[in-house]
Design a protein that fits this description.
By secondary structure, this protein is of the alpha/beta class. It has helices at about 10-15, 30-40, 55, 60-70, 95-110, 125-140, 140-145, 190, 195-205, 230-240, 260-265, 285-300, 305-315, 330, 340-350, 390-395, 400-410, 420-435, 450-455, 475-485, 495-505, 530-540; strands at about 85, 115-120, 145-150, 155-160, 165-170, 180-185, 215-220, 250-255, 350-360, 365-375, 380-390, 410-415, 435-440, 465-470, 490-495, 505-510, 515-520. The protein is about 35% helix and about 15% strand. The strands form three sheets. The chain has an eight-stranded mixed sheet with strand order 3-4-5-2-6-7-1-8, sandwiched between helices. This is Phage terminase-like protein, large subunit.
């Protein structure tokens, strides 16, 4: 019986030492060798002299190809490893590799009338895979006689088996009804931005149910924004399998990314370390070019660095690094406290302030609770948001991200019954019943129904438990207080992806005498939960005492 693992817990040592990231030899060496003989004979037409893959490929390429085709049991025809995930920096021959792998699969395929599929997010990306595949066929007279290329259909057909390799652009071509047995998904990060991507990929890969010899390959660079949707899900899963946290022998992750220590001490910025996420350095990737471009980025402001790091160094984008970002964003990730939920906050704190912002049907309804810890007097923040389901249709560019937050548990999507207000009131009531409610700070505009609902639990201006927090430049004190406390570590938070996104969306606009916080991009860049945090900071800055110990004076801050 074969026994193997796709986990690679020592990947950090391997990647720095330039060793392979696949922790096992091909399960069936003869199958791997047969496929490699085909793959290595294919010509890379856009290189000088049109060399073959065998002449120009680094070992990591050959290992990846061998792992794919060497996982097919020749006795049963079953593919024992059926999912492959490769994340790598831009220009490391990813699209050409996709063409070579799928052309090899077409040639070694035994099933007649089979459909093989490369699914790309756009026509341009589809062309990046189809054109080199077609060129490989035309560069070899033997292949040209065996395979029929139809450029207008982006299809290559095996003349004997009638099996066909199709390259499909998801933005123009339908994937419904596909019965593909071998599938390659190119640039998965782009699919992560699409609200319907999960359903689309399920439809495209449905043919594997009746194709035990089939496989799926996901190829991607890092996203130009914080990972979302199907890309976020698959990336997290791949890391979990690689690190040994998830056991899945049928899923092989190969992720070229920097070890955490190299990110923490900025070692990834040094040119001598560029090879870590660019295993094709010296072939399809020029170190001189990367070094020169890095110098340009470091000489400019931070507005474009994140995209450069993501694409050419495979560094995941966490926070928005625009020049006009909120300064507190630079410290946000470092102040996460795992396990900090509302119950934990209520248990550890002597007083709490609640901030609320938003509420329109095109906005998020944000709530933040900041508690003052008994022992340290540090501020602990927990946040949640609500949105109407119509936002998913009106703002399709962020729909997949909102679904991610819903799965995380930091966002609740409500229907036309608008249960958000009742749930917000229930949350405030939990703080009140814990005996630590200091006050609730709200943006006074447009929250009439919420004010009425809070009156039912005696949270009113008359009781001293409700404050109207002036907005605009009047929030400057809260903005600066929050960033100072984040910088010195006395404000810690629950670490939700929701708040990381909202904090990254904040744009700081200077006026003649003050500053104000606004959205980086109107419409899609939501910041309501972050503004709710500032409302709570404004209240906590007044050093409130819990309701059981003090009487309150009604005032606006």
């Amino acid at each position: 019986m074969l026994d193997w693992t796709t986990a690679c817990p020592d990947w950090e040592d391997r990647i720095v030492e330039r060793r392979g990231l696949i922790p096992f030899a091909p399960l069936f060496p003869e199958q791997a060798d047969d496929a490699l003989s085909v793959f290595k004979s294919l010509r890379v037409v856009d290189l000088p002299g049109q060399p073959t893959f065998g002449e120009v490929s680094e070992q990591w390429v050959l290992d990846f190809v061998a792992a794919i085709f060497g996982a097919n049991d020749p006795d049963t025809g079953n593919q024992l490893i059926s999912e492959f995930f490769l994340a790598i920096s831009k220009k490391n021959t990813k699209s050409t590799l996709a063409a070579g792998i799928m052309l090899t699969a077409l040639i070694v395929n035994w099933r007649h009338e089979e459909e093989l599929l490369i699914l790309a997010p756009t026509i341009e990306v589809a062309g990046n895979s189809f054109k080199p595949a077609a060129a490989m066929v035309r560069a070899d007279p033997e292949l040209d006689a065996l395979l029929h290329v139809q450029d207008h259909l982006r299809t290559i057909t095996h003349r004997t088996t009638k099996a066909a390799l199709k390259v499909v652009a998801a933005d123009t071509d339908t994937v419904s009804g596909k019965k593909s047995g071998r599938i390659l998904i190119d640039e998965l990060w782009v699919f992560g931005k699409r609200a319907n991507a999960d359903a689309m990929l399920r439809e495209a890969t449905g043919g594997l149910v009746s194709r035990p010899e089939g496989f799926i390959i996901y190829l991607t660079t890092q996203s130009d924004a914080p990972p979302a949707g199907v890309f976020r899900d698959k990336l997290d899963y791949a890391r979990g399998v690689r690190d040994g946290e998830i056991e899945d022998k049928q899923f092989l992750p190969v992720i070229y990314e920097f070890p955490k220590a190299m990110l923490d001490d900025d070692a990834f910025l040094r040119p001598e370390n560029f090879y870590v996420t660019n295993p094709n350095m010296g072939r399809s990737v020029s170190r001189d070019w990367l070094e020169r471009e890095m110098g340009k980025e470091l000489a400019k402001d931070a507005s474009t660095r994140a995209t450069f790091f993501a694409k050419h160094l495979n560094v995941e984008i966490g926070m928005n690094l625009r020049a006009n970002r909120w300064t507190g964003a630079d410290f946000w990730d470092a102040r996460k406290e795992p396990g900090l939920d509302l119950d934990e906050l209520l248990r550890r704190c002597e007083v709490a302030a609640v901030g609320i912002d938003g509420g329109g049907l095109d906005d998020l309804f944000g709530l933040s609770v900041i508690g003052r810890e008994v022992e340290t007097r540090n501020w602990l923040a927990w946040s949640h948001a609500w949105c109407h389901r119509g936002v998913l249709e009106r703002r399709k560019s962020i729909a997949s991200r909102l679904r991610d937050f819903e799965r995380e548990g930091s966002l609740t999507i409500v229907g036309d019954d608008l249960e958000d207000i009742s749930q917000i009131v229930d949350t405030i009531m939990r703080v009140k019943q814990a005996g630590i409610l200091g006050c609730v700070g709200v943006d006074p505009a447009g929250l009439g129904s919420l004010i009425e609902a809070m009156a039912e639990i005696e949270v009113t201006q008359e009781s001293g438990l409700l404050l109207g927090v002036s907005q605009g430049i009047w929030m400057m004190n809260a903005i600066k207080t929050a960033e100072r406390k984040l910088a010195n570590g006395t404000l810690r938070h629950d670490g939700s992806a929701l708040m990381s996104w909202c904090v990254g969306n904040i744009k700081i606009e200077p006026t003649a005498t003050a500053i104000r916080a606004t959205k980086a991009n109107a419409g899609d860049a939501k910041i309501d939960p972050a503004m709710a945090l500032f409302d709570a900071v404004q209240v906590m800055s007044k050093n409130p005492e819990p309701q059981r110990e003090a009487e309150y004076q009604v005032h606006f801050v």
